[in-house]
Amino acid sequence: MSLDLCPGIREACVHWRDAPMLQQTFEALERTLEQDNDACIDCAKSIVEVFCRIIVDELDSPIQPVRPKAAAPDFGEWVGAAVRVLKLGENQNTKFLKLVSQHHKLTTALGDLRNESGPVSHGRDGFLAKLSVHHRRSAVLSADALVTFLHQAYLEAQRDPVSSREPWERFDAFNQLIDANVGLTLGENDDGEPELHVLLPGNEYLVINVPVSRLLYQLDRDAYIEALNAARGVLVPAAEQDKEQGEA
Q1: In the prediction, which pLDDT does 10 show?
Q2: Cα–Cα distance between 244 and 158 in angstroms, integer?
Q3: Which residue in 48, 80, 105, 164 is a FRET match for 182, CA 20 to 30 A apart?
Q4: Residue extents of the structural domains in the chain
């Protein structure tokens, strides 16, 4: 078997390529699928759980949190929390709510299959026979259906740029709105020191006090090195040299 069985999982993992634990679990799933190893059941279940935790952490409200309070929440609690934070149960369409209900049943079935047959998470009889390819395929397909359903719902959800761990390019609509209506210029404070002015509509502006070195370091390392090399070539005025020598 291969990752061709789970295109939804692959798409979600590409989207969250900067999440180390998700990527590690995804690599384990790929290996166990290629080996026809029953451990792919554990990996498939873990992919769903890790993905649900990402969604909850990304969208949960600090005012009305849905994150499970238990020290070690079980599989169903994480999936249920992801469904709630995505507000999937608030849809008034009865057919859609039935679909949500079926995915809950899928969650339960996948968890039961992993508890009964997953060889990694629990010790098993050493002479227990391997499962059939049909069992492994069912587990992976179930996990893929869950991840696909949740990931597509997540992509349609409104994300908060203040707390989001998504990269800048994922907020394309917001970015275009800001770039079309907000400008940037260099100003000075009362002491004559440079500062950045973010020009807002209505002749107002925000002040960003940031050292040039930090701005370059955060945004453009090549520009930082170029500026560093240029600064190294600046001659110190004779008066300052005499002052430094006198202080020494």
Answers
A1: 94
A2: 56
A3: 164
A4: 3-155, 180-247
pLDDT in tens, 132-166: 677 778 888 888 988 998 999 999 888 888 888 88
Name the DSSP class of 187.
Answer: E
Q: Quote the pLDDT of residue 166.
A: 87
Cα(37)–Cα(136) distance, integer angstroms: 8
Buried b (16+ CB within 10 A) or exposed e, 178-192: eeeeeeeeeeeeeee
Handedness of CA 73, 5, 102, 12 (dihedral sign): positive
Sign (positive or negative) of CA dihedral 156, 162, 164, 170: positive
DSSP SS3 for 184: strand
Rounded distance between C-alpha atoms, residue 226 and residue 199, angstroms: 28
Residues 132-167 as b/e (b if ≥16 CB within 10 A, e otherwise) read eeebbebbbbbbbbbbbbbbebbeeeebeeeeeeee
Q: In the 8-state DSSP scheme, what is residue 40? A: H
Give one word for 192, left, alpha or beta, with left for phi > 0 and alpha for psi -120 to 50: left
